[in-house]
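Dear Dr. H.,

I hope your travels went smoothly. While you were away I took the liberty of generating a structure for the chain from your last submission, since the lab meeting agenda had it listed for discussion. I wanted you to have the full record in hand beforehand rather than looking at slides cold. The sequence, exactly as received, is reproduced here:
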Amino acid sequence: METVKGFRDITGSEAEIREEVKKLLVETFKRYGYESVETPIIEQEEFVKKSGDANDEAISDVYTLKDRGERKLALRYEFTFQLKRLMVNKKLPYKRYQIGEVFRDEPTTSGKQRYRQFTQCDADIVSSTIKDEADLFGLVCEVLDKLGIKYEVSINTRKLLNEILDQYKIDDKTKPYVLREIDKLDKFPESEVVKNLKTMKAQDVLKTLNGNESTFKIFKSYTDIIELKKLCDIYGIKFKFSPTLARGLSYYNGTVFEIKTLDKDFKETICAGGAYLVNGIQSFGVSFGLDRLCSLVDEKTFDKVKSKIMVISIGQEKEAINLVKKLREKGNRVELMYDKVSKALDYSNSKKFDKVIFVGEEEVKKKKFKIKDMVSGKEIWKSEKDLMK
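The corresponding predicted structure, in token form, is as follows:
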């Protein structure tokens, strides 16, 4: 039986890597002062769709449904809009993180890690300043560095883009459409973007956006980029100023950013976010896509955390169980199988166990255990005391 298109089962080493990455994210979020929250997967459709512009791609991809009472409902497509409710009576600044499933009814391209259900990992601060933005960048880069991912940070500000559009007298109704086209410049041929901008009489904005750094110094909001760069330098973070970066959602009103891997075989965005308002309060947030993030993590990244041990009991249940308990107390991952040695060895090999420990009559008499290294195939004998070292 196949899963619904755009959905999938996650098992084996992939599931294990996801758990380890989530642990790292949670630990890092907490160290930076963010508190955990959980929110409903299903919300009132009106609440969901009011959270953004109807023309936003994410809003148009919302899954909708009805309950038995014919009430219009929707699956959450992100977490940010739910902050409006969470913020009631919260002391500012309010810092929260959330990890969970979100849903979007969009075209699927599994080769690019796009699914209709995916796990999002967010951190947001309500009542934020540029100093808070730099601190959150510190969090993001710490996570990526620990995962061994090579990446590039691109940053812009919506304020600057709006100033440039004002210079070309682009009206407020047209601005969102122009910004969406500008944001496509790193994904589609420039000729195609220019063609679409011409229909809105906005093609000339590219003259400014394609200019050098001195071009932007005349705009007041460019000082935000300069200030953020100074702060990020202190954190040891380097970023690329990308004047055409706009991000897809219309609610962004300040700094916007995206982080892409430098892996030649995988050019998708792995982390993104920006500044926005929550109930009229300036806020800033980041969102990791767990699926994409984990696809870049080497399975060996977490190998050093603990040993993977198989204990095979050959008619010595009591001794084997006691040994397993002690090994687990030491933080090892340990499984126990009984009697059928060949079957247990086949299983251990297929699951990539580091070593197998035999507990039989001979081992009990000698008060030593035979240990097989599953990589080299070598066998040695060790006492329980030595095993616990």
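Two observations you may find useful: Residues 26 and 79 are 16 Å apart (CA to CA). The longest strand covers residues 94-103.

With kind regards,
E. W.
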